[in-house]
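Tutorial sheet, problem 5. The two components below are modelled jointly, 272 residues in total.
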Amino acid sequence: MIFKNIVCPVCGAACDDIQVEFGDGKIEAKNACKMGNAKFQEVVSSHRLRQPLIKAGGKLTPAAWDEALEKAADILVSAKRPLLFLGSETSCEAHEVGLKIGEYLGAIVDSNATICHGPTAMGIQESGKVGATEGQKKIGATS
Amino acid sequence: MEVLLITGSTIEEGRLAKGGDKFTDDYTMECASCWISPVDFASLCSPDKVKVTSRDGKHSIAVYTKCTNSVCPGHVFMPRAIWSNVVIDPDTLSTGSPLYKGAPVKVEPTEEEVLSAEDVVLKVYVGRQ
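Model answer (structure tokens):
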């Protein structure tokens, strides 16, 4: 199965013309650089966690999704001062869900934007430059 | 030798990090590395390894050298990774990011062992040898 116009999940250049072919336990990404390709290969890599694991007595043991979600919810609602650091290389949709969870918990929410692209944007703005993603540049160059 | 440390991605560092290969020899060889200009490399007597020390002298790390024209004299480059992170200036200037580019460091030839990423964690952050 071929998916077109996928946004690369790696760097802030945000290339949005990645074509991904997925099937038979294999994945092929076109238009992605070496970094992007390596990230897409993680989907089928041997060290990907494919099921929830719960730590019991210091040892990680496989668990059912319902049990794991229940446990995760327990940890979050029991937290005295929850901090949600939303992961890097994560989709906008996942961030949206994270923000909703943060609001529900009254948590402090932060993300890679603070330590990575936040300072970049500050620098760009302070020097009077225009900001653009690689995806926008590619569209601009071809239109 | 006093120089300015520039850190940043290399495409191979990116490929290895994004592919989940930080605990491999390939990653160590790519990232435990200090790129030095030919002029500075010669005045250091062409060492295989250097010890890079932070300006306050509190932190240092041994890495392999790479002599290259892509670095200016007076600068060195280290791929962004756990080795460079030991010696970058932690001051964020209120931006949220430490000084990844332009931190003054001292570079000197060394015979010290170059540690793996795991061993750097154990030595620097856990306090074990």
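Marking note: Residues 2-125 of chain B form a domain with the Barwin-like endoglucanases fold (CATH 2.40.40.20). Full credit if you identified this.
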